[in-house]
UniProtKB/TrEMBL annotation:
UniProt protein name: Putative 3-methyladenine DNA glycosylase
This protein's record includes keyword rRNA processing: no
UniProt-listed Enzyme Commission number(s): 3.2.2.-
GO BP: base-excision repair
One Pfam family from the record: Pur_DNA_glyco
Organism superkingdom: Bacteria
MF terms in GO: alkylbase DNA N-glycosylase activity; DNA binding
Similarity section: Belongs to the DNA glycosylase MPG family.
Keywords, comma-separated and alphabetical: DNA damage, DNA repair, Hydrolase
Lineage: Bacteria, Bacteria division CPR3
Amino acid sequence: MTGNEERLTRSFYERDPLMVTKELLGRYIVRETGRGKIVGKIVETEAYIGPDDKGSHTFNNKKTKRTRVQYQERGLAYVFSIYGKNFCFCIVVGKDHEPAAALIRAVEPITGIELMKKNRTIKTGKIKDLTNGPSKFCQAFNITAKDYGIDLCGDDSLYLTKGEPADETSISRSPRINIDYAEEWKDKKWRFYITGNKFVSK
DNA sequence: CGACCGATCCTC
DNA sequence: AGGATCGGTCGT
């Protein structure tokens, strides 16, 4: 495996949410399984920043069973279900205990491609389709509700490493996807991706 | 307790 | 372009 294998520490996540979300690009996310290791390079992220952001689940400091982890320690996993069968994976980020999350929208498969194929329901031969969307990535890495709230700085089965941080010059940004309800907040360019990387979602 | 709906995926 | 699908959320 290429890339720096040191873990990202909690202090990495305890900073400005937009900065952290951008600097997640190029980092590696690792899932240890009984059958081996699954590794992906993060190539697309989005920032959701309560309490002002109408696109965020924590808009207006909304506290529910689902969002409670966003008010806890930085570096925890915020996993939620969407459209019945699908999950999305975020990392709790930001200063103090202000609610904010960085959504992982796509990764580039690095290690364990056969395991990813096995985990995905769709059996396409194309590597590109394994992880190029937030819920496709969760499927490939077997991330489900059971992973809600786990500490990515301390857990042995799911964590992030320093990897190959993306150059500032290779990063693009755009409005976030599928938040038409967010009114004036939907146009904020809080989606970050590695320019030209073919594993970015469509 | 019931109604609504989504940080999406997949097939048509 | 449209259907699937179900837990979280909220109003009653």
